[in-house]
Each structure stands twice: as structure tokens, then as C-alpha cells.
Design a protein that fits this description.
eight-stranded mixed β-sheet; 465 residues; alpha/beta; five-stranded mixed β-sheet; globular; 16 helices
Length: 465
């Protein structure tokens, strides 16, 4: 096991999970960003384990956090979408906060996810939602967390902190508007036309653009996103300083992760997290604890479902059977350099799609395009085209067939005779599409591709009209 795993650690078991909602992996300096947005995260990445290629297999927020805390894919828990009324999580599903509480750790959360689904309150002695509906700034999260940490500094505990700053609307404090200030002078007279050209514009006008005042360019909005990340990193530095002042920083295992990323002006879904492109599914993952987690940069593909079994193994606890997640401890120990040869990715909120990602390729299958016009099969050569700009499916039919076969075999193995939960989401109505429809009250969206069909509980991919 990793060096430093000893009785001394087990007597001081403090764990803090830090969810950085909507955080793209490529904004971290330790992963190559040159804007110096994340000095705090870069420090912990250098001293702990940085997983260079971590992926959210189920997006967006609700299915992603459920997958992380259960160690199970959405296809198996049934949680594949956002705000879908019929979705529930079985009481007997393993749930990391409940497991840690049963082990005797005091548990608490500063979080808003309960407003989406009640199971996010499971396993906590104290659940502290910030005031307001959601998306409180990081300073408010810290103001709720710091007194709780002080009160329980002499106890073993598990604390979940959910920070929303990188999520729309991008409204960082004035003193952090460094990059957006620099782009204000570059004015694009067609910016409003560009924004209105997006299929989700009516909803995003209300939820994002109306909060920003004058918008000189699309780049200005992307710079506000970066300003939010710099602000969040500053507040994470305050969290680290507070733990240090209490004398418990080195006794605390910190797990930093993003639940999904965010498109800027890539692909169709500007400033949103629809689409199974790496801008959305490639997320930060850092695990830090001196003496327990050796400093390392881990390059194999890993998934957020791997966090639960990894945490339990690092703490010396038994890992429940039947998980989809695989412990990352062998990678940390250096006893293996392989982890996953493929990952299956899923979304069913704005659109219903699955993807299979290998080291070299990503294939995206569409079941229902929602408001977007991409219903064709997409294939990207990740080595040559890491930004996934050129769909090469027509040029590589053999690769498409091979990857489709792998995806079908994976789905058959997961589902057996069960109904695909993505099919249920499509039948019930994709929730983000329904929300947009309420905004525009039934106005036409143009020539949309055909909707999907369901055969024997399994989805049949949509075809372009």
C-alpha cells in the first residue's frame, strides 16, 4: 500500500471532497493552461496525485455526482438526466457519505443538490444548503464550512463542499475581472447575432446574457468564465489556509474534482455543458494527503466512478461489490500503468447521446438530438484532432463499425433485460428541451432531425432527415 498508510492516519481520519461544478480540466495550470488561473489547485496537484485524463461518464451535474458517490454508471443506477421527475435512486445503492458515516465519521455537506433530488441528503449528520436557490459564490460556501470545520477539528469527519462559481451566470467579483477587463475593448458588432444563432438562445438570454450587461464579444464571456475560476481558486486557497491555521491540513485528505466541464464557443452548446466532447467530459481530479497519497501524475484514462472505491481503499475500508468504479490505488502505487482501455459516456438532458472513448478515437451515437441538429454518427481521431473539430466517420467506416460493436456489447452487458434509462428519459421528454419549449412556447426550431425509437427497451439511434 502507499507509504505512510499507518495507524496514525487512521486515528486522524478527515476527508473533504471539493466539487468544482462546471470546471474544465484545461483551465488548470498543471494541465497546461498558461493564464495562471489555479495556483492553489496546481500546488495540491504537485504535492498529491494529479489524474491527467479523468472523465465524467455521466453528465450533467445530477447524474455526475450520483455516479461519483455510488461508484456506478448511470445506466445501472437509472440516473442519466437532470431534473427528470420520475428518476429515483434505490435506497440500497451504495452511497459514499452513508458508508463513511457508518464507519463513525462525522459527516456534513454544504450543498444545493438536495433541491434537485432528495438522495443527495443521504448520509450526512448536517446538511447545510447556502441561502437562495443555488450557485452561491465560493465565499458563502466557505463561510458556512469554516465554523463547522472549527467545531469538529478534533474529530474524524467527512465534509462535502460544492462550489458553483464556474457555472453560469459568470459574475465574478469585480476585483477578479482581470481577463474580461482586458477583452472589453475588443468589440464584435455581430456578437448578438452570433449568440442568437445558438438553438438554446432564448433560455440562455434569461440565465446568462441578461446578467452580463454590455457584451462586447464572445471572447469576453469566455474570459468571465476564466475570471470565475481564478476567484474559486482564491477561495480554495482560503480553505487550505483555514485548515492549516487549525493545524489539521496535513491530517486531511482533499479530493478536488469537476463534475463536468463547459463549452465556450466550441460545438453547438455555447456556454453550456451539453455534448460528449472533451470540453465537457474531461474534468480535473486531484487527490492529496501527505504520507498517504504519493505525489504523482497519472496518465491513464480514469473516471469519476473510480473515486468512491479509491477513497475506501485508501482509508483501509472494504469496497462494496458490484461497483463499476475501479480503485486507482494500483496506479498510485505504480504496480500498473493501465486502467481503462475504453470509457462509455452518456447524456440525456439537452440531447440523448452516448459515446465510446478509447486512447485514439471517440465515437458519438445520437438517439435524440434535442434542440441540436447533429444527429449523425460522429467520429473523432483524438490523436490528430484533440479539439474534436472534424467528424471523420465517413472516412473511417471500419472504425465506426468496430466502435459501434464495442458500444453495443458494453450496453448489452450492462442492461441485460432491463430497460435503458436513456430510453425512459427520451420517452418522458428530455428535461432541458422541455424547459426551453416552455420559454419559447412552442415556436418552431427549424428542420430538426427525426426523433429516436425504442425497441424492446433499447434505444435505436436517430437518423438525419
Amino acid at each position: 500500500m502507499p507509504a505512510g498508510r499507518a495507524v496514525g492516519f487512521e486515528a486522524e481520519m478527515k476527508i473533504i471532497f471539493v466539487s468544482m461544478d462546471t470546471m474544465r480540466a484545461d483551465r488548470l495550470g498543471c494541465l497546461g493552461n498558461r493564464r495562471a488561473l489555479t495556483p492553489t489547485l496546481d500546488r495540491f496537484a504537485g504535492e498529491g496525485a494529479l489524474f491527467e485524463r479523468a472523465f465524467a461518464t455521466d453528465i450533467p451535474t445530477q447524474p455526475s455526482h450520483t455516479a461519483l458517490f455510488t461508484g456506478r454508471f448511470g445506466v445501472n443506477t437509472g440516473v442519466v438526466s437532470h431534473f427528470l421527475p420520475s428518476t429515483s435512486l434505490a435506497e440500497n445503492e451504495p452511497w459514499l457519505p452513508s458508508i463513511l458515516r457508518q464507519k463513525g465519521l462525522r459527516s456534513a455537506a454544504v450543498d444545493h443538490l438536495f433541491s434537485m433530488k432528495g438522495w443527495f441528503e443521504r448520509g450526512y449528520d448536517e446538511y447545510m444548503p447556502p441561502p437562495g436557490r443555488s450557485r452561491a459564490p465560493a465565499s458563502v460556501i466557505n463561510d458556512l464550512a469554516f465554523p463547522w470545520i472549527e467545531a469538529h477539528a478534533d474529530e474524524e469527519f467527512f465534509l462535502f463542499l460544492h462550489y458553483w462559481d464556474a457555472h453560469i451566470p459568470y459574475v465574478p467579483p469585480d476585483e477578479f475581472r482581470k481577463y474580461s477587463a482586458s477583452s472589453q475593448s475588443s468589440v464584435d458588432p455581430l456578437v448578438r447575432q452570433r449568440l442568437r444563432s445558438r438553438p438554446t438562445y432564448p433560455l440562455f438570454k434569461h440565465n446568462l446574457y441578461d446578467h452580463l450587461g454590455e457584451i462586447p464579444s464572445v471572447d469576453y464571456i469566455a474570459d468571465l468564465y476564466d475570471d470565475e475560476i481564478a476567484y474559486l481558486d482564491y477561495e480554495l486557497g482560503r480553505l487550505a489556509d483555514h485548515l492549516s491555521e487549525l493545524g489539521i491540513l496535513d491530517d486531511t485528505m482533499l479530493v478536488f474534482f469537476g463534475d463536468h466541464g463547459e463549452n465556450m464557443d466550441e460545438h453547438d452548446a455555447w456556454f453550456d455543458h451539453a455534448g460528449l466532447y472533451d470540453s465537457v467530459v474531461h474534468v480535473p481530479l486531484i487527490i492529496w494527503r501527505p504520507g498517504l497519497v504519493p505525489p504523482s501524475r497519472v496518465s491513464p484514462m480514469v473516471a469519476l466512478v473510480d473515486v468512491m472505491p479509491t477513497t475506501l481503499e485508501l482509508l483501509g475500508y472494504d469496497v462494496p461489490g458490484g461497483l463499476d468504479g475501479r480503485s486507482l490505488v494500483p496506479l498510485l502505487e505504480g504496480t500498473t500503468t493501465r486502467h481503462r482501455d475504453e470509457l462509455v459516456l452518456c447524456e440525456a438532458t439537452w440531447q440523448a447521446k452516448r459515446a465510446i472513448r478509447t486512447e485514439e478515437w471517440k465515437l458519438i451515437r445520437c438517439y435524440d438530438p434535442g434542440v441540436f441538429l447533429r444527429s449523425e454518427t460522429e467520429l473523432y481521431h483524438l490523436g490528430k484532432d484533440p479539439n474534436e473539430r472534424e467528424n471523420v466517420a465517413d472516412a473511417h467506416p471500419d472504425v465506426v463499425r468496430a466502435l459501434e460493436g464495442r458500444l453495443d456489447r458494453w450496453l448489452d452487458a450492462q442492461l441485460g433485460s432491463q430497460v435503458d434509462p436513456v430510453a425512459l428519459a427520451v420517452a418522458e421528454g428530455l428535461p432541458a428541451v422541455a424547459r426551453l419549449d416552455r420559454v419559447i412556447e412552442g415556436s418552431e426550431r427549424g428542420n430538426a432531425p427525426e426523433r429516436t425509437a425504442v425497441e424492446n427497451g433499447h434505444l435505436v439511434a436517430a437518423t438525419a432527415s
